[in-house]
Amino acid sequence: MALSTRHLLGIKDLAPSDISLLLDTAKQFKEVLNRPVKKVPSLRDITIVNLFYENSTRTRISFELAQKRLSADVINFSASGSSVSKGETLLDTVNNILSMKVDMVVMRHSASGAPHFLAKHIPAAIINAGDGINEHPTQALLDAYSMQEVFGGLKGLRVAIIGDIMHSRVAQSNIYLLSKMGAEIVVCGPPTLIPKYMEAAFPVRVEYNIDKALQWCDVANVLRIQLERQNQVLFSSLREYSLVYGINRERLDRLNRRITIMHPGPINRGVELDSDVADGDQSIILQQVENGVAVRMAALYLLSNPSS
């Protein structure tokens, strides 16, 4: 089987069969990662550039590890310290890199739509590692894979996405993916952090009371407050946010059901999650990080082998 697209720009344009193929392939690669010899020659002679115009730790390391596990040749590019600081355009930067015979580009950029722009202008396969507040497709895929591991499937699963919905590309990609795969979704947070058009534009229900959202859901996917993307004050203080929307052990203990806690990272400990919840037995946050490598191996492999 093959993906219906030669790029991974977002979940919005993927068919459910594409998502299933990516998740099934990730399962195979996770088995590889659990073997004594974790390296396979699947991408030997494939050259990949990691083009990061935005700071990243988890995503960048995860992609680089996935690439090296597949035996690819890897070039790491950071906008800081490059000719970008001298005024070089995005297209010029990429064309210069492509002249070095690069096959794939993994790109993170602060501008929404930047990977789509590249896909229209260059022949290499593009993987979106996060663009502005648009999408973060591999994060949604690894979140879905992690949920599948716990629950056995996504259809009928009740997922609450909690926090800064307004500025989250993770929320948008998760909503697209989960709705395509038959899950039910509630978004929860302060009214100032949830777009007014949410219920009209997406197959979700909006809930402002976090205790009701937690009581309803099977999974709480908790998002970071993205202060760096907020150009105005949207709530009075982090302390107030933590009191009203933060998830602590006491709040979980009040529920009459056990739920699974997820977070894409990095965590603002003591704001959206207390440490005893983030590190507790209901949390699968570290499993998400582990699964990220397998999911990104799957995406790289399928896009480099369009006829596979």
Task: Describe what is shown at a glance.
The chain has 308 residues and is an alpha/beta fold. The chain contains 12 helices and 9 strands. The chain has 2 domains: 16-135 and 290-304, Aspartate/ornithine carbamoyltransferase (Rossmann fold, 3-Layer(aba) Sandwich), CATH 3.40.50; 137-288, Rossmann fold.
Protein topology:
Elements: H1 16-33, E1 47-52, H2 58-69, E2 73-78, H3 90-98, E3 104-109, H4 114-121, E4 125-131, H5 137-151, E5 158-162, H6 169-180, E6 184-188, H7 198-201, E7 205-207, H8 210-216, E8 219-222, H9 238-245, H10 249-253, E9 260-262, H11 275-278, H12 285-304
Helix pairs in contact: 1-5, 1-12, 2-12, 5-6, 5-12
Description:
- With 308 residues, the chain is of the alpha/beta class.
- It has two domains: 135 residues, 3-Layer(aba) Sandwich (Rossmann fold), CATH 3.40.50; 152 residues, Rossmann fold (3-Layer(aba) Sandwich).
- 40% of the residues lie in helices and 15% in strands.
- It is built from twelve helices and nine strands.
- The strands form two sheets. Strands 7-6-5-8-9 form a five-stranded parallel sheet, sandwiched between helices. A four-stranded parallel sheet has the order 2-1-3-4, with helices on both faces.
- Helix 4 links the parallel strand 3 and strand 4.
- The protein is globular and about 55 Å long.
